[in-house]
Each structure stands twice: as structure tokens, then as C-alpha cells.
Write a structure and sequence with these properties.
This protein is mostly beta strands. 7% of the residues lie in helices and 69% in strands. The chain is elongated and about 60 Å long.
Length: 242
């Protein structure tokens, strides 16, 4: 009799346990970023270079499992690029190359990066809480082309970051609110990348959802570019969970 009761209990519980054994999440979004900050040393601000806003995009994949010691994995790629021009009203220097005032300068700013994140899920019910570490791999550049000179500084640095995510799902509604961030200040590098969002998920065999939010990225990299930039603005995304 006891064996029958135990077997029945395991049979009833197994669908719920199996649902959390393995999970694959995917998402893609569009981010309207507005620029501020400066580049160069001596520096010039983003407005003087004509850097106003740009249409950026990103996508991610996350794999979660039931093993308690091995961390979950997440990969996200964000494309950030702005190509603008302006007549500058002050001189500035990029990687020891000086551009003089009152000349037309074409600027190409690229802060494209890929995040490799390992994280643990501390809570997973109506409240989700994830903590971990991210390795951010920059693959971009800053380029300035004036009437006489052209200078390009590659941004190909790897920066470790602390990762955190919290999400609260409103019970029985499909709605959720959340926040996510990567941040670290180490030696001559300082990066803060935070976002907040509200989303709705359509529950089915494959959970599909939409998400609206606001993201702010602050980057201070001590390289030949001397980049100290803020990019912030709203974003929209679609999400899938298998």
C-alpha cells in the first residue's frame, strides 16, 4: 500500500519537476539609445561630435538546468554603433592625434560587445532572483576623420562584471516586472549597465512574450580612446522560453 501511495505521488509530481529540469530562453530586442559623455584626451563631448542617438539591437540565449553546483549560462550580443559628423568648435586629441577646431570631423563610435554570463538561480517561483559573473568582450572602435588626419582606436577589451537579475511575476496574470544589471569598477575601467522592464507572457507549450523597458549603459574605459560615454533610452523585445 505504501509503495502504491509513493508511486502515485511521484507520478503526480513528475510533470512539475520535469518542467524545471531544463529550460532554454531566447530573446531579441531593439534599443533606442541617446548618447552623452566624452571621448579623447583632451576630451570633446558627444554633442559637439554630433553623436545624438542610434538604433541598437541585441539578442540573447540562456540555458538553465537542475544541477545545483554547475551554474546556468547566458550569452548576449549587443550591437551599438553610431556614425555622425559635425564641425567641432574645440580641439581634441584621440590617441595622440589632435583634431583642430572649426573643421568637419566624421566620427564612428562602436561599442559592440558580447556578454558571457555564468549565474545561479536563487529563487524561481513568483519571484526570480539570479546572481553571477559576466565577462564582457568588447569588439568595437572609435574613429575620427578630419580634413587632414584620420585616427582609429580599437576597443577590444575584456572586462569582468557582477551580474544580477530580479523579476516578479504577478500571479495568474502573465504580467511581470523586473530589473537586470552588470556592473564593476576596477582599476581604470568602470561599467554600469542596468535595465528595468515590464513584460507579458503568453503561456503555452512554448512561452512567448513581449517586453518594454529602459536601459542605461555607462562606460569609462582607459584606453587610447579615453571613452567616457553614457547611452540610455527605451527598448522593446520579444522573448521565448522552451
Amino acid at each position: 500500500m505504501k509503495k502504491l501511495v509513493l508511486a502515485a505521488g511521484l507520478t503526480l509530481a513528475s510533470p512539475f519537476a520535469a518542467a524545471d529540469l531544463l529550460s532554454l530562453k531566447a530573446g531579441a530586442g531593439y534599443w533606442q539609445g541617446d548618447y552623452s559623455g566624452s571621448v579623447g584626451e583632451p576630451s570633446i563631448n558627444a554633442e559637439q561630435l554630433g553623436l545624438d542617438d542610434s538604433n541598437n539591437n541585441y539578442f540573447y540565449l540562456a540555458f538553465e538546468h537542475f544541477l545545483p553546483i554547475i551554474p546556468n549560462a547566458r550569452v548576449q550580443h549587443t550591437r551599438i554603433s553610431s556614425d555622425q559628423s559635425a564641425v567641432i568648435d574645440q580641439a581634441f586629441t584621440l590617441n595622440n592625434q589632435t583634431f583642430v577646431a572649426n573643421e568637419m570631423v566624421f566620427t564612428d563610435l562602436d561599442l559592440t560587445h558580447t556578454d558571457l554570463t555564468a549565474y545561479y538561480q536563487l529563487l524561481d517561483n513568483w519571484v526570480t532572483l539570479n546572481v553571477g559573473l559576466t565577462l564582457r568582450l568588447f569588439d568595437g572602435h572609435i574613429s575620427a576623420r578630419g580634413e587632414t588626419f584620420t585616427e582609429t582606436v580599437d576597443i577590444d577589451q575584456s572586462v569582468p562584471l557582477v551580474y544580477g537579475e530580479a523579476r516578479f511575476r504577478l500571479p495568474f496574470t502573465g504580467w511581470s516586472v523586473g530589473a537586470q544589471g552588470n556592473a564593476l569598477s576596477l582599476n581604470d575601467h568602470s561599467i554600469t549597465d542596468i535595465s528595468a522592464s515590464v513584460g507579458y507572457t503568453f503561456r503555452s507549450v512554448i512561452d512567448a512574450g513581449v517586453e518594454l523597458g529602459y536601459r542605461q549603459l555607462s562606460v569609462d574605459l582607459d584606453s587610447g580612446a579615453q571613452a567616457d560615454m553614457d547611452i540610455k533610452g527605451p527598448y522593446a523585445a520579444v522573448t521565448l522560453r522552451f
